[in-house]
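User: Fold this; tokens only.

Assistant: Input:
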Amino acid sequence: MNKTEPSYSLRYTAAALLERVETGQAFSHLLLYHELAGKAWSREDAGLLTEIVYGTLRRQNTLDYVLGVFVNKPLTKLDAWVRVLLRMSVYQMRYLDRVPDHAVVDEAVKIAKQRGNKGVSGFVNGVLRSLQRKGFPDTSAIKNAEERLAVDYSHPAWMLKEWQNAYGEETALRIAEANNVTPKTSVRVSPEAELEDVQEMLEQEGIQTTRGAIAEKALIVEKGNVLVTEAYQNGYITVQDESSMKAGEALKVEESMDILDACAAPGGKSTDLAERTGPGGSVTAHDLSAKKLNQIEEQAARLQLENIATAAGDARQLTTTFPARTFDRVLVDAPCSGLGVIRKKPEQKWAKKAEDFERLPEIQQEILNEAVSMLRFNGRIVYSTCTIRPEENEQVWEAFLHRHPELTPDHELTDKLNISEIEHFSSDYGWCTILPYEYGTDGFFIAAAVKNNQ
């Protein structure tokens, strides 16, 4: 087989994973994780499989527009497996230079023969050969400006409209562009180790890294899989986005403090906080999902952190679980729409509608109202989300502060986090929004306040 041509099994697997995302609302990152962990893929094939799956999901709107020109019926009328097979084939033809078009078409036809019949394989062959012959259609034919942007930037029109209203058109399009870029993995280095030493350790295992953009203890993985390294297995690093690390920084944890992580899963912040407070302190990792708490316990064991305790329950009922004023620090990393992490979970663009998020601000308010009761006087509360919707971020936080005059917002939050050059923040209310294009991190919201003595 020509080394530039991916194996049949690779494309077949890519189509199968995409079909599961399409029909079962499965998460692409979890499917890929289990697929890559369960088989002996070469590094090259693992990279290409990941690129095809994520890339197809990221560019879905653009790909569907292209297919709409060459398929003489609505794409929704096609079987799901045929639809995703065509999408991933068009993705490779348009965006991957290293894969010859003829190889893409030949493999798609083989898969169609195996999954369907001669008629389906003929249909797939006809669509892709027509595209090869006639070329990609120009989107300038789309008269409606909103629809054209949605196709060009491969986002739902409603989502772009929300961001335009919140941040203006230029920023909205920069967000969308950043969402279509392959993200790099970042890791948090244990405080027990020097960053340079860990960097060298990883390099000896074939992992190239660079320093993080905004988090002091962050390394960016330029090449390689850190999850299979001894540095990871021995607890020197934890996979965590840099924006998420800033939420831990915002708490201003000191040694021997007692900390509540109210919505803790999957636990990256809990382990960060446990490292910050040290063995003399404690972290209570609380989450609605008991199953997800197992993951936190596994990570705590890997990192040899004995100061984390887990507790299952609804964060809207914290006062039924813990006595008032139990903790020095409280983190509310609230359930949210997740629109700041679309780079890593591109299917979220297509799975959700704006109306799906209507109840989230109410839930976020209820959690904050419970969480503030947990805080000791002079304690610090941080509210964070991995979304960039003002309805779930500054609007929730500012309404919360108005109901709780005992709280003083951190007017110097962005200076303390060393991100004062970001565009969207409020010194008055102590919040900031990190947009995906600013540092190449997840989109993230962080707010902080201190509870006054009464």
